[in-house]
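User: Here's a chain of 134 residues. Predict its fold as C-alpha cells.
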Amino acid sequence: MDTRDDLSALILHLEAERTQALVRKDMATAERLHAPDYQLITPGGRCMDKAGYLQAVAEGRLNYRAWQIEAPQLQLSDTLVLLRYEAVLSFPERQLRCWHSDLYARHQGQWLALRSQATAFPPEAAAATPLTAG
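Assistant: Prediction complete.
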C-alpha cells in the first residue's frame, strides 16, 4: 500500500465485496475473503467460526437479503485494520440496525476478515434512526 488512504480504500472495498458475497451467496468469494481462523459474534451473542458461518449462509439459515454499510470508520496499522460502521441488515423476516466491527489482518500478503462482531441497536434507537434508501 502506498498510503493510509489507499489502505482505507482497499479495506472498504473488501468489506463491500465480502458483505455482498454473503448476500448473493457467492461462497467462493466469501471463502476467499475470510481468514481461516475467522470468528463472528452475532447480535445475539453467538460465536461462529468460519466454517459454521459460511455453512449457515450457504444453507440459508442466515439469509441476508441486503447489507448496507453506513458511516464507516477505520483504525489502521501495518498489519491490522479495525473497521466499524452502522449496518442495516435485511433478512426475509426482519430488518436489523446494528453496530458492526470487523478486524482485518494481513494473511499471506492479503487482507482478510479475521473477526466480526455485530451489536444490535436498542429498539428505541433503531426506531429513532431513519433508514436511508438504498
